[in-house]
Amino acid sequence: MILYRSMFRVFLAIALCVSTTTVYSEDGYQLWLRYNKLTDAATINQYKAYTQGIVLEKESPTLLLARQELQLALQGLLQTKVTFSNTFQGGGIIIGTPSSSGIIASLALSDKLKATGDEGFVIVQTRVKNKPCIVISANKDIGVLYGTFHFIRLLQTQQRIENIAITSAPAIKHRILNHWDNLDRTVERGYAGFSLWDWHRLPGYIDQRYIDYARANASIGINGAVLTNVNANAQILTEPYLKKVAALANVFRPYGIKVYLTARFSAPVEIGGLSTADPLDANVKAWWKKKIDEIYTYIPDFGGFTVKANSEGQPGPQNYNRNHADGANMLAEALAPHNGIVMWRAFVYSNEVPEDRAKQAYNEFKPLDGSFAKNVLVQVKNGPIDFQPREPFHPLFGAMPKTPLMMEFQLTQEYLGFATHLVYLAPLFKECLDADTYAKGKGSTVAHVVDGSLENHSLTGIAGVANIGNDRNWTGHPFAQANWYALGRLAWNPSLSSETVAEEWIRATFTNNEKSVHTLKDMMLASREVTVQYMTPLGLHHIMGWNHHYGPGPWIKDKPRADWTSVYYHQADENGIGFNRTATGSKALLQYTPEVQKIYSSLENCPEEYLLWYHHVPWNYKMKSGRTLWDELCHRYYQGADSVRRMQQQWSTLKGIVDEERFQQVSSLISIQHQEAIWWRNACVLYFQTFSKKDIPSGLEKPDQSLSYYQSLEFPFAPGIKPKW
Amino acid sequence: MILYRSMFRVFLAIALCVSTTTVYSEDGYQLWLRYNKLTDAATINQYKAYTQGIVLEKESPTLLLARQELQLALQGLLQTKVTFSNTFQGGGIIIGTPSSSGIIASLALSDKLKATGDEGFVIVQTRVKNKPCIVISANKDIGVLYGTFHFIRLLQTQQRIENIAITSAPAIKHRILNHWDNLDRTVERGYAGFSLWDWHRLPGYIDQRYIDYARANASIGINGAVLTNVNANAQILTEPYLKKVAALANVFRPYGIKVYLTARFSAPVEIGGLSTADPLDANVKAWWKKKIDEIYTYIPDFGGFTVKANSEGQPGPQNYNRNHADGANMLAEALAPHNGIVMWRAFVYSNEVPEDRAKQAYNEFKPLDGSFAKNVLVQVKNGPIDFQPREPFHPLFGAMPKTPLMMEFQLTQEYLGFATHLVYLAPLFKECLDADTYAKGKGSTVAHVVDGSLENHSLTGIAGVANIGNDRNWTGHPFAQANWYALGRLAWNPSLSSETVAEEWIRATFTNNEKSVHTLKDMMLASREVTVQYMTPLGLHHIMGWNHHYGPGPWIKDKPRADWTSVYYHQADENGIGFNRTATGSKALLQYTPEVQKIYSSLENCPEEYLLWYHHVPWNYKMKSGRTLWDELCHRYYQGADSVRRMQQQWSTLKGIVDEERFQQVSSLISIQHQEAIWWRNACVLYFQTFSKKDIPSGLEKPDQSLSYYQSLEFPFAPGIKPKW
């Protein structure tokens, strides 16, 4: 009956929202570009003072998009018809650049504009012909579009706009989504349906979704999209596919978004008919140069390549006894004349049975510092293992001063409950960005490494592995939209707080109801730590299910590689648990600066959230709480699962405030998350108990299933699994 | 620039349709349940006379859905608030059954209702307490829901409702969609995205889409859904998946939709741990009985199984030297106590190098007539080969009087341009349903075989292989929705004309503008014949691309089986082209009644649309047009391609009448269809020319590419390809 009731609620919600054009129910498709009627009368009146019209003097594809988006937003938010004109009638909003607008050229904005570069913008309230108006201006058209979206965001979030004076420019040059999308439309580690790219019907058929994807990215400043999986297929570089890519590039161009592709290093052999892909071979160089020149005939502003080489079985320069710089520079040289770049991933580990995985990227790349071409970025994951719920920052940050390092975050929740768990990732991103590398003394944060300020690099980038699919709401979980949003906002301005970003997103996406905004913010800000607790507390990591990575699998062992197992990472035994990475262990900690080492090296002082990352700790070890390690571990797991129940209660207070369809969606998802949190808790506690030989602390409910039950679970069709090829 | 312009048009369309609740653009998600404001004032006033309210005296899950849908429709179509109550206030619409409504019980409807059975309905205008009102009644709740949707359709299509008196009941008992959906969400021969069934998040997460899928089906009388691929995976029969299936069944139940699954014949071995799947083996029987009893504990109204056995490598009873009846009856026996049925597919052909594929189903099944259990339907494709653009009706229709035969149509356009070509399939369905088998003399149409009237079978069914995926508009091509719609309407009433069904769909989905309705109807009714002309004119068949079936491949030969090639079917040589299936050839024609044989047996009298299906014809043969066969073949191919251009011109007249988003979608799709029609034309004419050794008739433009170019095209990632396993 639960089900019937929920169905009726959805219907009722639909029935109650009859519009003049159509019957409509909210499905999340609009993302944060949701221009529903504002409710606060005072705010609406304040805004209406500026809705006499939109003035755009000279049109261009990008400026037209800005005007149309502004009209769309004002008409939706204020429920009033908004006209536009190419002359100033008095009042309203003037958009444009000094070169396209005589009015804007006549205003004294040049100093402000100087600071905003090619993508920044200036928004000011001023008077023209003695009439009050708002001016959105920039040096380039794309800046005007970014400024327009920023202004719309102010309205959506009900900010005061009197005397507004905003100057903004991005801290990072390349703000990019990486789509791990395959040509058959499966998405590696994708949990929101399948690929947006309908390759079969491209280039002839342009899905409205491509346009709305571009709108969403432009609204948060994302200016690049790598369309294909890092585990690349060379077919994407063949003529038929390049024509399809060009069609997407044509859609994205006016939104300021460049397309990038992944380059399969062995492409010269696979589609070029060569016998080698040796980066120093003249024929190989010639093939890539010709291929890259060809790409630019289809896509004049092609962005460049992301490359995963000599990693997890992918081909690379090491197959020919060359190093990563040899490979990257060969591609960079061919891209340079077109202003293209190479984003060469540092996520590598040797195929031989390795030493500590955490050390390998550093070992391979640090020696190459200074040997990369000017248009190469080395793309480094936030942590040294692989997108775990919590990792320390990657030791390469701060360790390659002569090389611009690009940040790679993962939005798709490969290790964080897929698209089923509510986990707001901005706190994870910020934890890494704000971490201090001490590379040049205190304040040498990862953010300053990435934004180039620490070593004065002008080539900078942040990439997010996309969590976007063809689910109607784009990301599967309505709240996962916030992680896409956060990536864009933080790449533009890494100093924004998780809280600010969350509040913007909540107001634009759900509601401006103050009490509910507060509740939602509280849920979101707590969610990542909650997930750490029920999955991998105290520094545990990489204990998930085999291959699909769904659910707990601390018992995983005896796989082709030790570092593909769980036992390798948690090292649990009768004495204790944890991976000793200090000077007495794998020495991974020694890859960091002495100041950082000092924080983690001693068992006594090591912050407990990283305890088992750096130390192998006796079960009886006394924790700060006074509990033994074993008791503390259990309490954290139980606390994590309990916190999801709290999240559930918080969400229930939004009934009737957020639309019924998304209310039901999230309610169902949180209850699945609660069941899966208990699953993680029980499976891990029961498994680790086989080593600790201790009881679950009294007062904590006993697991209702046996360890063998949890170990017996199989998920042959879990989504997002690596394709076979 | 084309692209920019089209993007702006879409935006403008969005900007101009501002509603009181939200900014909205039409994406086809609403299908034919589109309740936009009606435009004809007179009609609206006529309808408003009945909007005083909806009276539902006693609630039930299904009756509540009827009331909510009616409210939703009235409020949308008439843009007026519609209230409901459980007592008659005077006027309005009364819905219910005699047993749930005192008012309805009090009306003299019992005679009318008697004729409507368990699913039919009666809609009448009458007076209650001397107040005019409309009564929608039925014997069962589901009939009320069907009647409500029928009434809504009358409003959507602007029919007069004064003195309305409609009595309707379905001609076919089981009206079913077959989803060839795999558990990894790929869809075999699916071209509209991926599977609707998000198995990973079931049973906990109920997608709104499941509800809207059920609404759409109920609105056209579809009462069953086979959720999984006929190339079945036994995992669907395991407990975790049965719980997921049960969750879908719970959603569908109040809409009168039963769920069915495909049974992999070897399941007892694969998931049951038995050493055999021999249908006569006691352990195998016991296993299936236990499994089926288990299914009913989760899904008390489970519908039963569709089975593909001993076909294209699928396991079946013949692996154990048993026949199809042995296999079907074993399952039927276990299903019978639960009122479940078996739909056993007749699409079989031996694994040995065969004789004429067209003959094999008949050869295997006719001898089994009379040996199937009472709850078994034999499911027969409309034609003897495989869903070609045109085939004669299947010889089994009329040949198995003691066995209820179920029709299998294909909605997904495996051989008809995927989801890119506009092909309205009702004329194809009707051509088959109206064909006369002469099994019991003139008038023994296929429809009368299928509806049971010819041999007095009460167990009847029509299945459509679904063209539905997770594309936002469900079917990829907006017009492909009409094929889903047509299957439901024709399964309810096979005597409806293609034209009537098209007009209903057009008015509900696009517009009531009379001129445009006429244009759209003309496009749709012509579309199937147009496709036949540019793909397989004059009875040609099975000459498409290898494996993916995309595009032309008349040159396909040297494959594992002769009947998996094209040359096997067109038999082109220096002398002529076509497959002699007469008494002097494969004798396939002899499987039909003498009256049918007479129509096709002589080269002179054979209708030209089946000429090359039944005869091998010399290139110089004089056709009715006076042209030689070669010239006629060329002209048909060119005529087909030209007709697509005409379709393009017709569609262009709807600019500004249909919403901009769908206008752009269809415009792009028709131009792709035009390019692909020319591709088909050129590839086939150039290929057949290598045999005819004749010029393309003067006046017809020469192909711009060589035959070898067309033969060189490859499509490694064409959608819908069979999974490897």
Automatic annotation (TrEMBL), chains A, B:
<dbReference type="GO" id="GO:0016787">
    <property type="term" value="F:hydrolase activity"/>
</dbReference>
<keyword id="KW-0378">Hydrolase</keyword>
<protein>
    <recommendedName>
        <fullName>Xylan alpha-1,2-glucuronidase</fullName>
        <ecNumber>3.2.1.131</ecNumber>
    </recommendedName>
</protein>
<keyword id="KW-0858">Xylan degradation</keyword>
<keyword id="KW-0119">Carbohydrate metabolism</keyword>
<dbReference type="InterPro" id="IPR029018">
    <property type="entry name" value="Hex-like_dom2"/>
</dbReference>
<dbReference type="InterPro" id="IPR017853">
    <property type="entry name" value="GH"/>
</dbReference>
<dbReference type="Pfam" id="PF03648">
    <property type="entry name" value="Glyco_hydro_67N"/>
</dbReference>
<dbReference type="Pfam" id="PF07488">
    <property type="entry name" value="Glyco_hydro_67M"/>
</dbReference>
<dbReference type="InterPro" id="IPR011395">
    <property type="entry name" value="Glyco_hydro_67_aGlcAse"/>
</dbReference>
<feature type="domain" description="Glycosyl hydrolase family 67 catalytic">
    <location>
        <begin position="155"/>
        <end position="474"/>
    </location>
</feature>
<comment type="subunit">
    <text>Homodimer.</text>
</comment>
<dbReference type="Pfam" id="PF07477">
    <property type="entry name" value="Glyco_hydro_67C"/>
</dbReference>
<feature type="domain" description="Glycosyl hydrolase family 67 C-terminal">
    <location>
        <begin position="475"/>
        <end position="699"/>
    </location>
</feature>
<dbReference type="InterPro" id="IPR011100">
    <property type="entry name" value="Glyco_hydro_67_cat"/>
</dbReference>
<keyword id="KW-0326">Glycosidase</keyword>
<dbReference type="InterPro" id="IPR011099">
    <property type="entry name" value="Glyco_hydro_67_C"/>
</dbReference>
<dbReference type="InterPro" id="IPR005154">
    <property type="entry name" value="Glyco_hydro_67_aGlcAse_N"/>
</dbReference>
<comment type="similarity">
    <text>Belongs to the glycosyl hydrolase 67 family.</text>
</comment>
<dbReference type="InterPro" id="IPR037054">
    <property type="entry name" value="A-glucoronidase_C_sf"/>
</dbReference>
<keyword id="KW-0624">Polysaccharide degradation</keyword>
<feature type="domain" description="Alpha glucuronidase N-terminal">
    <location>
        <begin position="31"/>
        <end position="151"/>
    </location>
</feature>
